[in-house]
Amino acid sequence: MSLQSLGLTYEQECVYRYLLRTRTTDPDTAEAELGLPGLRLVLEELRALGVVDAGLVPLPPAAAVDLLVRLRVERTSRELARLDSAFDVVRELAEEARQGRPVELVERIQDKAQVNHRIHTMLGRFETMNAKVLARTEASDESARRRQRQLAEGLVSRTLVSTAALDQSDQLAYARHWHALGDVHRVMSEPFGRMLIVDRRLAFVRLDPGRPESDTLQIAQPGIVAALVDLFEQLWVRATDLDRLDLSATEAAVLRTLSEHGKDESAARELNISLRKYRAHVAALMTRLGAATRFQAALRAKERGWL
Asked: Can you give the residue ranges of the HTH luxR-type domain (predicted)?
């Protein structure tokens, strides 16, 4: 069976099979032996998929196939969710027939609870684009669990937050928590307006961006939504991926003690923090580095020039 049936291109499958056979760590050697121009780009694609790591070490076959199957299932789930949105058209048509007039395409909502209710009932579909000032906002445990479940089921979510907000340690930790779960975060220093776009067909924006207590507009007018999607994409391109941010002072200190101390207790004492808090910092760093063990975290930190 070809791995192309699981989503890899012909070139990606050739490179993956080659790395399994040879265990080479030299891209130039691989390119010469395979006779495949542009092999470095193919390697970047495999790294992005998670099939190959930064050291050109391929996933074992069973793990690679499992990963590709899960990715394929997620893509299928998203396509099914997109088809499910067709039933919204049925509801709109039925409402127009009932009212005898077109459904309102731009609606002003005064009640914040109603806004949250509408958003939560929609966030199980295909894609969300969220531009907000703070990473962490008030949300119930049930809302967080629902969000995590939706991400696991294939929801594509991108969140843009203000760089200034991440100067607060709780905001940064919260952003990294969701980033690791699949809600991809980017940050930017220039000002931007708050917006939430669902499935590229419905948007929520503040009536007065300068007043947090102002009413919310729910927009279904295709032309306006398309313009907001375009604006979000432009902001996204200019923003910085959360994983590319430099280490904070606390993270740098924890990483240093992690490499210098054999025991967590002595490392925590040096930093003058509790053992529990130290271990929480270590766990957050490992999540950021995508490491399963502390040894792997140290290797990846060295690759990034953090050690």
From this structure: 244-301
Strand partners, 188: 162
Average pLDDT over residues 198-208: 87
164 and 119, same structural domain? yes
Q: How many CB atoms lie within 10 A of CB 74?
A: 17
| Residue 232 pLDDT | 92
- Answer yes or no: do 236 and 264 share one domain: no
Q: What percent of the chain has pLDDT over 70?
A: 83
Cβ(40)–Cβ(49) under 8 Å? no
pTM of the model: 0.54
